[in-house]
Amino acid sequence: MIKKNDDSTKQGVWTITSDMNILRKNLLDLFCQLAYRDGDFVLSSGQKSSYYINGKQVTLHAEGALLISRLLLSLLPINTDAVAGLELGAVPIVSSVSVISALENRPIPGLIIRKEVKEHGTKAYIEGPTLPSWSRVVVLEDVVTTGKSAMRAVNHLRDSCYVVDTVISLIDRKQGGKDLYQSKGLDFFALFDIEEIKERYKELENFK
């Protein structure tokens, strides 16, 4: 974990700075220290991998959530009416971005997309405020591999008459997600790609 006496993390610097480079650097270090692991893993897509990124180690971390929400808020198109994401990985991201948007006097509601329709109550796929048809919604994701998870959210939102043309992820594993989104008419942005994560991880390991 980033040390509390690091100048870049002292309250009054990274917590309130408008310098996105400082925020991004601190978030990169958190991902490398808390979320990235080398080893033999099987991903949700069924693919085997020599590394794994547990995004929830950062998205549910107090400092991580603040860094993420401020960075993502700066990337949202000015006409964004809501942010949304598929359960479970995107839930803390959507929630923290919505909270910080209110603090920044730019309140943006959040929507959560269920993987399966609930069997009681309204039997809804989409949880959150009901917005007017054709509201512009940006889909958020923690880690993109093939891109199929976020596409489920996109499809449910589009089926509900929302306009979705942008997906933003924290990390792009560069294994086909971007190509899938582009083929579906979506713009795609990621805070980090896997090469940057690996490079910084090695640097931090050498400092130990």
Automatic annotation (TrEMBL):
What EC number is given for this enzyme? 2.4.2.10
Domain of life (superkingdom) = Bacteria
* Residues annotated to bind orotate: 145, 173
Q: What molecular function does GO assign, one term?
A: orotate phosphoribosyltransferase activity
Q: What class of enzyme is it?
A: transferase
Instruction: Identify the pathway.
Output: Pyrimidine metabolism; UMP biosynthesis via de novo pathway; UMP from orotate: step 1/2
One GO biological process term: 'de novo' UMP biosynthetic process
**Cofactor(s) needed by this chain:** Mg(2+)
Q: Where are the transmembrane segments?
A: none
Write out the entry's keywords from A to Z: Glycosyltransferase, Magnesium, Pyrimidine biosynthesis, Transferase
Amino-acid positions noted as binding 5-phospho-alpha-D-ribose 1-diphosphate in the UniProt annotation, renumbered to this chain: 114-115, 118, 120, 141-149
Record bears the keyword Transmembrane:
no
Enumerate the catalysed reactions: orotidine 5'-phosphate + diphosphate = orotate + 5-phospho-alpha-D-ribose 1-diphosphate
Quaternary data: Homodimer.
**Its function?**
Catalyzes the transfer of a ribosyl phosphate group from 5-phosphoribose 1-diphosphate to orotate, leading to the formation of orotidine monophosphate (OMP).
Q: Which family does it belong to?
A: Belongs to the purine/pyrimidine phosphoribosyltransferase family. PyrE subfamily.
Descriptive protein name: Orotate phosphoribosyltransferase
Species for this entry: Richelia intracellularis HH01
